[in-house]
Design a protein that fits this description.
The structure holds 2 protein chains of 2 kinds.
Chain A lengths: L13 E6 L5 H9 L3 E5 L6 E9 L2 E7 L11 H10 L11 E7 L3 H12 L5 E6 L1 H6 L2 E3 L1 H8 L3 E3 L8 H13 L11 H17 L6 H9 L4 H6 L4 H16 L4 H16 L4 E3 L7 H9 L4 H19 L1 H22 L4 H19 L2 H17 L1 H14 L8 H7 L3 H7 L6 H10 L9 H16 L1 H30 L9 E2 L8 H35 L4 H19 L3 H9 L4 H17 L1 H13 L6 H9 L6 H9 L11 H9 L15 H13 L4 H11 L1 H29 L1
Parallel strand pairs in A: 1-4, 1-5, 5-6, 6-8
Antiparallel strand pairs in A: 2-3, 3-4, 7-9
Helix pairs in contact in A: 3-11, 7-8, 7-10, 13-16, 14-15, 14-16, 15-23, 16-19, 16-23, 18-19, 19-32, 20-22, 21-22, 21-30, 21-31, 22-31, 23-32, 24-25, 24-26, 27-28, 28-29, 31-33, 32-33
Chain B lengths: L11 E7 L4 H8 L7 E7 L6 E5 L2 E5 L7 E5 L2
Antiparallel strand pairs in B: 1-2, 1-5, 2-3, 3-4
Classes of the chains: A alpha/beta, B mainly beta.
Chain lengths: ~750, ~80
């Protein structure tokens, strides 16, 4: 059996899956494509582009899952993608050959609105009445055969969550490919036709674009049409004609802004007359009674806080065994790789200290991401996420965000990487961008080691554990206190966000299907590893090289000679005896020499030299060159400061924040040169300055990689510059005010 | 003039007209809120805004300011 005969043999057939939000479209997509799907992004925007292979009689065809949309009005980014994709305006993607429109069987009339708009594009169509079981429970009966006859396209009943009707869909698509059937379109009244004609002539005269009837309608009917934006600069003339075209409608007694909805619904109402039957009275729905509790003014909030606490806690605690597992895997690899490359120390260091360490630290985020996305998918698929946004909206609307920013920001307290990925649930692109930019300010778990080290070394001994705990607690609000005014300024002056409507359907509660939730979880994990991993890899190697080179053998030799001589003198033995005990690689003496050597190499490495060179920049904050190197080395990952300080203070790389040694050494560190020589480096103003610096600074390669991926390189650069500048200002302010107070 | 933005919780009212000046009005109409239909405020968020409305079996959340374009008449 031949597929559409007019098609050239090499052209792949594309089928687009469209539908309102909450119609079970994604579940259907998963059923139809199984494991054969790909997730990417639409060019230039952050909307996920999902496509998969669908097996038909004539072979495999591409099934494209377009974002959920109520209409083609292109009010949201998602809807804009749908319009562009259906009109063949997305680069690298031709217009689909068939549209499969998913319809919530309980809401036939309102779901047909989108189908009717799409019908005007002239693309052959299949209608899928999904969630038919729910409709039956509500005593709604649809005569789908009559509907199919009236609309002129195949109509299939399905229950996607129970895999019912999947074969029927494939059957219907096959039949439409053999015999293209188009849905009955609305017959617009004369004034609309006249206005459309006039507008088409104006557009034709003023641009090179050849717009379809649908696109002309979008310009005519929509309050702010995305199509006009797409036409570019020469729209002044068109806008003039648009006013005249709308005038025609107005004179004929139509409100141009309301005409489409009224006329479409009138048309559709006639089409489905007698097709939907309600038997019996509608009972109080389950959703209504659940909502009574879930969005209750008091209880609702308590449940919400409890639920968020649980999610947050799970991301924090469940992840740690997996993270430990990944870490021990990395350790194992490092242990394996060490001896392999023993002959070439540089390669050994590159593999063990560079690649494995850096990539390992990055992979450590994976469990958090997967756990968070598990919960996000769960909350979305049950229908609760919309309620959470409803409860939280007021708290965010004043600074230009909306309730949907809450979950990403809260997640960022565990880690900004999954938090930024979670902003995908925010449809409004500007609110989403603002959320992405403030998310890294939330105090993530990687900042904790720095806080613990410094508070443990300086605040606890002086002020006691109560104030130490308080300080740790307060540190978690430093970022938030900066983030909220930042969001306000961003929205008001930089992004100039127009107040975005918060029109959100509260879908019926549903039991989610574990398969769909697991899918979401694995897809987000896979995407994270594949995309961001390459950037991390590059940054890691660059920082490693700066810390490793140059490495003249003479430096090591000199340290060794001096060490042997001083040890011999100290122990009253001859140098040969010292050398023998150094030959045992595990001996204390050998370790101390290794630390000293590492420290000497670090000091004369490119990074060490850069640190010394740019120390004056950090001088106003009271940082010496060692802290400066620590700060520089921790740009890829902030927790690196601990091991870097360890190396600098010759303790060896493997120290952690709890090590008493490091705390002691740091507390006793003194200036070695300059005006402050002999005085302690870590005075209280410096310590507070470092704490604030680490709270605000953009020191996470993974976060920057994810911002690049989600919002673009430009915004990652801006985020880095802004956060780092702010961190420097904060540290300088703390130090300068501090030394004047003490 | 009774507007959706100041309709009390739990009271049913009928849509008399929709301004259709803002895109949010257009969106509400697309979602199926049309003149002549009954509408009810079913929930109010803890801080007084936004509100959740119900029409034709559909639940939708929106801010009060966005509901001001929907003019209502009371149903006896």
């Amino acid at each position: 059996m031949a597929l559409l005969p007019s098609l050239a043999p090499e052209k792949t057939i594309r089928i687009a899956l469209i539908g309102n939000p909450n119609t079970g479209k994604t579940t259907l997509f998963n059923n139809l494509t199984g494991l054969r799907q790909r997730v990417g992004n639409y060019p230039g925007v952050t909307v996920a582009r999902k496509s998969g292979l669908l097996k038909l009689r004539g072979g495999n065809v591409e099934l494209i899952d377009l974002p959920g949309a109520y209409s083609l009005s292109a009010a949201s980014l998602d809807e804009r993608i749908v319009v562009d994709a259906l009109c063949g305006q997305v680069s690298g993607m031709e217009a689909p050959d068939v549209v499969a429109c998913v319809i919530d069987a309980s809401n036939l009339l309102r779901n047909l609105f989108l189908a009717s708009q799409v019908a005007e594009l002239g693309i052959p169509m299949v209608l899928i009445l999904n969630q038919y079981d729910v409709a039956r429970r509500k005593n709604i009966h649809i005569d789908h055969k009559l509907l199919s006859k009236r609309l002129g396209v195949p109509v299939v009943k399905t229950v996607a969550t129970r895999q019912k009707g999947t074969e029927e869909i494939v059957e219907a698509i096959n039949s439409v490919l053999d015999n293209p059937s188009r849905m009955e379109v609305i017959n617009w009244p004369e004034p609309v036709k006249e206005a459309t004609k006039m507008l088409r002539e104006a557009v034709g005269a003023n641009t090179k674009n050849n717009l379809s009837e649908t696109e002309i309608h979008r310009i005519l009917f929509d309050a702010d049409s995305a199509i006009l934006d797409r036409l570019g600069n020469d729209t002044g003339e068109i806008r003039l004609h648009l006013g005249q075209a709308r005038g025609i409608l107005f004179k004929a007694g139509f409100n141009p802004m309301a005409a489409e909805a009224l006329l479409q619904y009138e048309h559709l109402g006639g089409l489905i007359e007698g097709i939907v039957k309600h038997s019996g009275l509608a009972k109080t729905s389950r959703t209504e009674s659940i909502d009574h509790l879930m969005v209750h003014r008091g209880w609702g909030l308590a449940i919400f806080v409890g639920m968020m606490y649980l999610v947050f806690l799970s991301v924090y605690t469940w992840a740690s065994p997996f993270m430990d597992f990944i870490q021990s895997g990395i350790d194992w690899f490092q242990g394996m790789a060490g001896p392999w490359f023993a002959a070439t120390p540089m390669l050994q260091s590159l593999m063990v200290d560079g690649v494995l360490e850096g990539v390992g630290a990055f992979l450590g985020f994976l469990p958090q991401i997967m756990i968070l996305f598990f919960f996000i998918a769960l909350l979305e698929d049950t229908g609760y996420m919309a309620r959470a946004a409803f409860l939280m909206d007021k708290m965010f609307s004043w600074c230009g965000l909306n309730g949907k920013s809450f979950v990403p920001l809260l997640s960022s307290y565990a880690c900004a990487v999954p938090g930024i990925m979670a902003t995908r649930t925010i449809e409004d692109p500007k609110a989403r961008l603002a959320t992405i930019l403030i998310a890294p300010f939330m105090s993530c778990s990687a900042r904790l080691p720095v806080y613990v080290l410094l508070i443990g070394a300086f605040i606890e001994p002086v002020y006691g554990s109560f104030y130490a705990g308080l300080a740790l607690f307060l540190m978690h609000f430093v970022g938030l206190a900066v983030a909220i005014p930042t969001a306000f300024v961003l929205n008001k002056f930089i992004l100039k966000t127009r107040p975005q409507p918060f029109l959100l359907e509260l879908p019926a509660y549903r039991v989610p299907r574990l398969r769909d939730v697991a899918w979401r979880m694995f897809q987000s994990g896979e995407e994270f590893v594949r995309r961001a991993g390459t950037i991390i890899f590059a940054i890691t190697i660059i920082v490693w090289a700066l810390l490793y080179f140059p490495r003249p053998a003479t430096v090591g030799e000199e340290i060794r000679q001096n060490f042997i001589e001083s040890q011999a003198q100290f122990q009253n033995t001859n140098p040969e005896a010292v050398q023998t005990s150094l030959a045992e690689t595990d001996s204390d003496l050998a370790k101390r020499l290794e630390y000293l050597t590492d420290s000497a190499y670090l000091e004369q490495s490119f990074m060490g030299r850069i640190g010394k060179t740019i120390q004056p920049v950090f001088d106003p904050a009271g940082f010496d060159w060692k802290i400066t190197v620590g700060v520089l080395a921790s740009f890829p990952a902030r927790e690196v400061i601990i091991s870097t300080l360890g190396v600098i203070y010759s303790l060896g790389g493997d120290v952690d924040e709890g090590t008493g040694d490091l705390r002691e050494v740091v507390a006793n560190a003194k200036w070695q040169e300059g005006a402050r020589v002999g005085t302690p480096v870590y005075t209280m103003p410096v310590v507070v300055g470092i704490l604030v610096f680490f709270a605000l600074c953009s020191q996470c390669g993974a976060t920057l990689a994810v911002i690049t991926k989600e919002a673009g390189f430009r915004w990652a650069v801006l985020s880095f510059t802004f956060m780092t500048t702010l961190a420097w200002l904060g540290a300088v302010l703390c130090y300068q005010i501090g030394i004047r107070l003490i | 003039m009774l507007k959706l933005s100041n309709l009390s919780i739990g009271i049913k009212a009928r849509v008399k007209a929709i301004d259709a000046k803002k895109s949010v009005d257009q969106r509400l109409m697309v979602m199926g809120l049309l003149p002549g239909m009954d509408v009810k405020v079913v929930q109010v968020a803890p801080l007084g805004d936004p509100i959740a409305i119900e029409f034709q079996g559909r639940r939708v959340s929106l801010r009060r300011a966005e509901a001001s374009g929907v003019l209502l008449e009371s149903v006896a």
